[in-house]
Structure prediction request, 306 residues.
Amino acid sequence: MKAIILAISVILAMLQTSLAAEWSGADEQAEKAITDINPRYEPWFSPLWEPPSGEIETFLFSLQAAIGALLIGYFLGYYRGVRHARNT
Amino acid sequence: MHIAEGFLPPTWAALWYAFSLPVVAYGAYKAKKRVDEDPKSKSLLVVAGAFVFVLSALKIPSVTGSSSHPTGTGIAVVLFGPVITSFLSILALLYQSLLLAHGGITTLGANTASMGIIGPFAGWLAYRAVKGRTDIKIATFIAAATADWVTYIVTSFQLALAFPSGTGFAGVMASAIKFMGIFAITQVPLAIIEGVVAALLMGYLLQVREDVVTGVTA
Prediction:
């Protein structure tokens, strides 16, 4: 728990620094670098489906994290319960 | 670290698929065999896969002023090794490429190679190197941070091979340095955060599942 609070504080502290121009994704910067190296390169395939808006994209990212967190929490609680039952 | 859809020329996309698919298929086979032999490992497999899901969804700001996300493969590497990790990684990569337009179907082979295979393999080597000589939690930190960081180095080289800045080896290296400038430094704090979170989870798993210790120290 202490470590989690510490990790969040570190991230928040970093956000206060002047280094942060825009916090764009590193992936986007890589796409830009590709265009720098080879200005004629055209992506030859586009995503089959794209989230219609930034909000929906955020929703789907959160959903991904939520699915993972739910599974981890469920099984950790289950293991804990099994251990508790065995010890009583 | 996911290479965006269409951003690898067809030849490279195909090549990385050829590299990754056999490993993923073998990983799926090994995962099934492991669960059949030891049914108690089934829920651990789910937890390891879920950890990849959570961590690869978190885009975290970093010191360079850009954001990137961890890979979450560390737990899977320690519990199941790199081959099974490749199978778990491709599930998260599929979710992101199909629903989020993050990564892509054409670059799935390359992204699986970096995040699912080569990064985890490096993490596994690092784990093997320190295992037994240090606490399991510290070893997990090292495995997870290494797997995370190497993933992004591999991505840099994948892009550099496809987009060299000149001819021959020098051109590839020039591009690799350019891409590493974007990925490698950004990823250092994230790799450390990922290592800490993985170590915390491993510590908790060891507390509630005594049988995990024998698995990870064997």
Remarks:
- Chain A touches chain B through 53 residues (CB under 8 Å).
- The beta strands of chain A are 24-25.
- The radius of gyration of chain A is 21 Å.
- Chain A has three helices and one strand.
